[in-house]
Write a structure and sequence with these properties.
The strands form four sheets. The protein has a seven-stranded mixed sheet, sandwiched between helices. A three-stranded antiparallel sheet has the order 12-6-14. The protein has a three-stranded antiparallel sheet with strand order 8-7-11. Helices cover about 25% and strands about 25% of the residues. It has about 290 residues and is α+β, with helices and mostly antiparallel strands.
Length: about 290
């Protein structure tokens, strides 16, 4: 069936570029095809969409309810007056720098996010890419003996902990950063193997927010988590780095991909809009 747009798979284990499409004008049949492609590829790239925040919010909401306060939030190194963030203790920059480590969104909240739509409004001349890693393929590449061991293990997830570990400790109050995710009292516990609720595919579930595997000593736990992240991102076939152009939009499946921001010269502006899709309480809730 011809849906009126072109799909080109990346030369990776995941991801596809969708051309000849206007995501703001999809009928229900076309959108269902996009949704099915998203489940298959986990990452969809829509070049040159030039979405307004309202358009992005409406598109993202077709994939599910959005996280309150993160419907179309600006993530940038630009202050409201147009000047750049330069203070060493700027909490927004601490979060941005923290997000340059591999992670999945909202694993540190009671509900892990389902996915996110991300779009480029202003980009630096070089750098500032976003990288993604296929955690389904990473799980499949593990030795069977290790899969069996990891299937019985879990880890706690905390934004406050991961920021502190990276030397980017962020204040919970008296800060321009809204404090989202820093004041979670019951730190979520999540399995190291996640079963995708819609595709039933297993994936490796780690990332920078994970720590403290119950039953392991602190050093042993951290060494294992670090080793798993390094393993997941070591094979070029499992990793894709998107070089942004203004107007590009992507949607990723947060249930089976890790991602990270890539470095750029902070003396140049980078302005992105992020719309976070809320997880289903039946499938994305922490174990505890």
């Amino acid at each position: 069936m011809d849906f009126g747009f072109r799909v080109t798979a990346l030369d990776k284990t995941f991801g596809a570029i969708i051309d000849d499409i206007n995501v703001t004008a999809l009928d229900d049949v076309q959108f269902q095809h996009v949704y099915d492609l998203w489940l298959d590829y986990a990452l969809l790239i829509f070049p040159r969409q030039n979405l307004t925040p309202d358009e992005q919010q409406k598109f993202a909401s077709r994939f599910g309810a959005l996280v309150e306060g993160l419907e179309a939030v600006e993530i940038s190194n630009v202050l409201a007056d147009g000047t750049l963030r330069t203070a060493a203790d700027d909490d927004m920059m601490k979060i941005i720098r923290g997000n340059m480590a591999w992670h999945q969104d909202n694993t540190y909240m009671p509900l892990q996010a389902k996915g996110a739509v991300f779009s480029a409004q202003q980009i630096p001349r070089t750098g500032g890419d976003t990288a993604f890693a296929d955690m389904r393929a990473a799980w499949q590449a593990l030795p069977e003996e290790q899969k069996q061991r990891l299937s019985g293990l879990s880890a706690y997830h905390s934004l406050a902990h991961s920021q502190k570990q990276l030397g980017e400790e962020t204040k919970e109050s008296d800060s321009e950063y809204i404090g989202y995710g820093l004041d979670v009292e019951n730190i979520p516990l999540r399995k190291l193997m996640k079963l995708h609720p819609e595709t039933q595919q297993p994936s490796l579930a780690v990332g920078r927010h994970a720590f403290g595997i119950p039953g392991l000593e602190t050093d042993e736990s951290q060494a294992l988590l670090d080793q798993l992240i390094n393993f997941a991102t070591a094979d070029e076939a499992r990793v894709y780095q998107h070089q942004w152009r203004v107007g590009d939009a992507v949607i990723w499946d947060n249930r089976c991909l890790m991602h990270r921001a890539c470095d750029w010269n902070f003396s140049e502006p980078r302005v992105m809009f992020h719309s976070r899709i809320a997880g289903d309480p039946l499938t994305e809730a922490a174990l505890n």
